[in-house]
What we know:
By secondary structure, this protein is α+β, with helices and mostly antiparallel strands. It has 5 domains: 8-56; 71-156, no CATH class; 179-347, Nucleotidyltransferase, domain 5 (2-Layer Sandwich), CATH 3.30.420; 355-416, no CATH class; 446-478. The protein contains 15 helices and 12 strands. The chain has helices spanning 8-21, 27-34, 38-51, 71-82, 90-99, 107-116, 126-141, 148-156, 220-233, 265-273, 287-307, 312-330, 347-353, 453-462, 467-477, and strands at residues 179-186, 196-203, 209-215, 239-242, 276-279, 356-361, 367-370, 373-379, 382-383, 391-396, 402-405, 411-416. Strands 6, 7, 8, 9, 10, 11 and 12 form a 7-stranded antiparallel beta sheet that branches. Strands 3-2-1-4-5 form a 5-stranded mixed beta sheet, with helices on both faces. Strand 2 (196-203) and strand 3 form a beta hairpin. The termini are far apart. The model is unreliable at 256-261 (pLDDT under 50).
Amino acid sequence: MKEVVLTMKEAQKYKVIKRVAEGRSSRARACITLKLSDRQVRRLLDRYSRLGKSAFRHGNAGKTPANKISTETKNRIVRLYTTTYEDFNIKHFHEYLISREGIQISESSVRRILRARHCLSPKAHRATKRAVRKELKKKETQAKPLSKRELQTLQIVEPVDPIKAHPSRARKKNLGELIQMDASQEYWLGQSVPKITLHIAVDDATSAVVGAWFEDQETLQGYFQVFAQILKQYGAPYEILTDRRTVFNSNKKAGVPGLENPLTTFGYACQTLGTQLSVTSIPQAKGRIERMIETFQSRLHSELKLAGIKSREEANQFLETYLPHFNEQFALPSEGIMSVYDAQLSDAEIERTLIIPRERTISKGHTLQLDTITYQTYRNDELVCLPPKTKVLAIQTYAGKLYATDKADDVFELRQLRHHETHSPAFEAIIETPARKTKKKPSVPAITHPWRLMNYRDFLVSTGMNVYEANHVVYQTS
Length: 478
């Protein structure tokens, strides 16, 4: 007969009911001991009389749970996380398991499976790293060989510095009240592609990403692209908070000789729109954008890799569809929040606002130079020759068009002066192609040709003429 194994709680219940059945204890005492009603105790006595000790064993004991995750599924999850979805954080990985791989599983189960195989998330907490390091070190002392993945994890897990405290700041109340801007230069497209820079802007009230753009470096053009997205989709914000880069903050102060306006080009555009521009050198003062960049480094890098994007142009196109989905998932709801954005701007208004002005002087050739390229001034498609040494303001618009204006506020279009004319009429007349000549047969000189006189003499000698006569004939022929 198979032995019946009970848990501690089941064994206690068995002993109490057995004592009642043998008459060594009362049913009322059993109710108090087991904290059950008299009806339940009578049911247990009835089951004990029919089944004996096995009546107290749970019906599911020894059976495989219906919701147990199979070993094949666990192995597949680990394999996907270490190959296709490498560098994904676990929450991001769990989303793709459900939407793309069709594996219906809870996030806590995914964490438990990966934790058991020592697969760490890039966003793992310090306590988790310390625990994994302790487990792997203990396994080494037990003379158990570590797998290749465990050895790699052991190299990653290192002692970390204690957490530094930074007090939080309350969010702004209204949409557009504060926009935080920053940029991040990373290997966004993988180690095989040079680093590029992501320019990004976040609304402080809802943490919604209101603009993002990739450039090779952190440049004014990149921030102009982000600012143009904000102006076109939302309008001009009340305030923009950035770091102290020279794009936003001039190193020169007001009152410096030779400098009438200490504003940068970006600051001038903000002043034109009535937007305040604030700068700070403390990263924690703009923690919203710093945390958002950290999220993008964790998620966007993996999304670009999964989509097979290898160029900056493709990455910017990908952002157009990615940002709405990202905001829908992570931004706070904006319903019921008042917006303090100004009216949205048209493309023409944005082009006139986001400009790069530079002072230039007209040369003796009635031209000016921008970035080593020579330009001439035109008005209504007619060349205008401004006097030499005239001070003009060369303006490059957001769309890349070039204009110039003088003190009289006359506006001229700038056109590049070429090194050579596009064509020279005097030397480019159409020349008819001559007809193809037929190939001539090679001409063979006559036997009496001066070049063949010696052969002619030998010929005469072969006919029976003596040498003197043959030389005489050859001499007369030449």
